[in-house]
Prior knowledge:
mainly alpha
Amino acid sequence: xxxxxxxxxxxxxxxxxxxxxxxxxxxxxxxxxxxxxxxxxxxxxxxxxxxxxxxxxxxxxxxxxxxxxxxxxxxxxxxxxxxxxxxxxxxxxxxxxxxxxxxxxxxxxxxxxxxxxxxxxxxxxxxxxxxxxxxxxxxxxxxxxxxxxxxxxxxxxxxxxxxxxxxxxxxxxxxxxxxxxxxxxxxxxxxxxxxxxxxxxxxxxxxxxxxxxxxxxxxxxxxxxxxxxxxxxxxxxxxxxxxxxxxxxxxxxxxxxxxxxxxxxxxxxxxxxxxxxxxxxxxxxxxxxxxxxxx
Length: 295
C-alpha cells in the first residue's frame, strides 16, 4: 500500500508538473533511501548504521527459504501448465472462429510442449537434494510460484485488457493516444502506481532473501540491474514495446552474468564494466531496431 501511494504521488508530480520521469524517480530513490537509513538507525538504536533482522519461520522469511513439498511442487506445476495450455488453446480457437490471423496449430502445440518440459525440469532440479551433509533441502522454493503468479497477473493486465493496450499506445505516441480519446494523465499515474507496487513486492522478496533489512543495501546497483534486465529482455526505453516475460528473461540473463562473474572471482570493478557493456549493447540494439522500423 505504501509503495502504491509513493508511485501515485510521483506519477502526479510527473504528469501535472510536466517533469522528466527519470529525474523525479531518481529524486524519490535518494529521498526514500534517506528515510530508510533514518528509520533503521532509530529502530536499531545505532548512530552509524542499523540492521533489523527478520525472525525465522515467518511468512516473510519463508518467501525465499521456504519450500513446497515434493508432491505439492509437482501438483502446482501440473496445474499451472494445464491452465496456461488451456488459455493458449482457447485463444487460438476463439481467434480462428472469428476469422482472425492465427499461428499454425503446430506452433501452439510446440509452445505447450516446451512449457511442460521447462516445468518438469524446474521441479526435478528443485526436488533434488541441495542441502548439506547435516540437513536435507528439497522442494520448489515458495518464491518461484509467487513470481510466476505476479508475472501471470501483469501479463494478463498488459495483453488482455483495455488498460494494457492504452499503456502501449501512450508509450508509442502519447499525443496520438490523447487524440484517440485516451485519458493519458490517468493512465500514466496508474502505471506509476503499479510499477511502484511491483517494486515493493520485489523489495519484500529481497528482504526475505537477506533475512534482514539493512542500511548497507546498495539501491543504486539494484536500479542498474533492473533497467538492464528490462532492456536486455527487449523493453524499449523509448516506450511502446515490451512484455513482462521478456523482463523476467532479461533478469535471468543478468543474474547468470552476475553469478558467473562471482564464481570465476572477478573483481567488483570488472563486474561493473561487464554489466555496463551488456546494458549499452542492449540499448544500442533497441535504438537501431527502432530506427529500422521507423524507416
